[in-house]
Design brief:
12 strands; binds pyridoxal-5'-phosphate; Aspartate Aminotransferase, domain 2; 13 helices; 2 domains; alpha/beta; 7-stranded mixed β-sheet; 382 residues; globular; Aspartate Aminotransferase, domain 1; single chain; 5-stranded mixed β-sheet
Length: 382
């Protein structure tokens, strides 16, 4: 999928206002900022979301990154966090009250649901909807539903949603929508342009892109983000450090070329698996006619189901891989493999409608032929 010229400019272009001609922004490695007078400090403290007072609030290097991510998403404002979970926590804790209800649609990132479960201790309830038609979501709504949170494509099975229909349903009821856009990156999908209120990213994946940084981001209308800033971000303390922000800015410079290669490699590997007799099914939103109109391209994360995939066979295939390395997370240059099947969680998988034979691949930037060879050899052991 070709990259939008404006996105190329945002990712690779110089930092606005940088007077020195440097292609990389300076790292403003400071915890605090001093003021010429006490009055001026007090003015800064009165609007900490707009002033440099303390790096737990705002920092110039982090702001450069926030400007780029907001522009890539065509959103109004962005705030960065110390992790993707930091961003998710701030949405839930910043916007919900006791008695409120959240609907999660599609398979969503596991720890987000674990956090929602913890929030039951504070009287905030939730439901998970795995049937993806809008009427199923509508049925799950309650009078106190304040937020619909979703992923498209979803975690593990990569099923896509009709995002505009979901947004329409939410808007008609005055319910906020939040979408985790980590999989697609803003290059392949821009939820804010579809009317989604809050767009969330784990910077730890493709945006950082080199498996050397953990971070998160939210893009939202400025007024909504300001609410999250004062009610959660500044108080929970999951702020991104300036060096981490700088690493993500560096990652963005190669994001367009990396995403095009992840897409090409991912599709090549997925098509190979589709034709393999040991594979029952490949879960990749770019295959067949399953792709939704909202998705402009595909990243390199997808899964496949082993035919007759019990835990022992999964373990043997994973251990037989050598180019694919075994590990959590994804979105870096190296290819990774993992399975949601841990050998002792059949019931949990069943509840999430995840087939026990599932293996997830993060296809990296190695030559596709060597990745296919690796899988071909590993699948021969079962
Ligand atoms: C990794 C991830 C997160 C959480 O990000 P962290 O930086 O690990 O906290 C959230 N959503 C998705 C889809 C992810 O893959």
């Amino acid at each position: 999928m070709p990259i939008h010229p404006r996105d190329l400019q945002i990712c690779t272009g110089p930092v606005e206002g940088a007077a020195t001609g440097a292609v990389a922004p300076p790292i403003t490695q400071t915890s605090l900022f001093t003021y010429p007078s006490f009055d001026e400090l007090l003015a800064g403290l009165a609007a900490e979301h707009r002033h440099h007072v303390y790096t737990r609030g705002q920092n110039p290097t982090v702001e450069v990154l926030e400007g780029k991510i907001a522009a890539l998403e065509r959103g109004e404002a962005c705030k960065c966090f110390a992790s993707g979970m930091g961003a998710i926590s701030a949405v839930l804790l910043g916007l919900l009250e006791t008695g409120d209800h959240v609907v999660f649609v599609n398979q969503v990132y596991g720890p987000a649901l674990e956090l929602a479960t913890e929030l039951r201790r504070f009287g905030i309830d939730h439901d998970v909807v795995l049937d993806l038609d809008v009427s199923a979501v509508e049925q799950a709504l309650r009078p106190r539903t304040r937020l619909i949170w979703f992923e498209s494509p979803g975690t593990m099975l990569f099923r896509t949603l009709d995002v505009p229909a979901l947004v329409e349903l939410a808007k008609a009821r005055g319910i906020l929508t939040a979408m985790d856009n980590t999989w697609a990156t803003p290059l392949f999908q821009k939820p804010a342009t579809l009317g989604v209120d809050i767009v969330m990213h784990a910077l730890s994946k493709y945006l950082g892109g080199h498996s050397d940084v953990v971070g998160g981001a939210l893009v939202a209308p400025a007024a909504l983000l300001e609410r999250i800033f004062y009610r959660a971000f500044l108080l929970l303390g999951a702020s991104l450090g300036p060096f981490e922000a700088w690493l993500v800015i560096r990652g963005l410079r190669t994001l367009p070329v990396r995403m095009q290669q992840h897409e090409e490699n991912g599709l090549a590997v997925a098509r190979f698996l589709e034709g393999h007799p040991a594979v029952r099914r490949v879960y990749h939103p770019g295959l067949g006619d399953t792709r939704h109109g909202d998705l402009g391209g595909c990243s390199g994360l997808f899964s496949f189901e082993l035919a007759g995939g019990d835990f022992d066979r999964i373990r043997r295939v994973i251990d037989a891989l050598s180019v694919f390395r075994i590990g959590v997370s994804w979105g870096g240059t190296e290819s990774l493999v993992i399975s949601p099947n841990r050998g002792d969680n059949a019931e949990a998988l069943d509840r999430q409608r995840i087939p026990p034979g599932l293996i997830r691949l993060s296809v990296g930037l190695e030559p596709a032929a060597s990745l296919i060879d690796d899988l071909d050899r590993a699948l021969a052991v079962v």
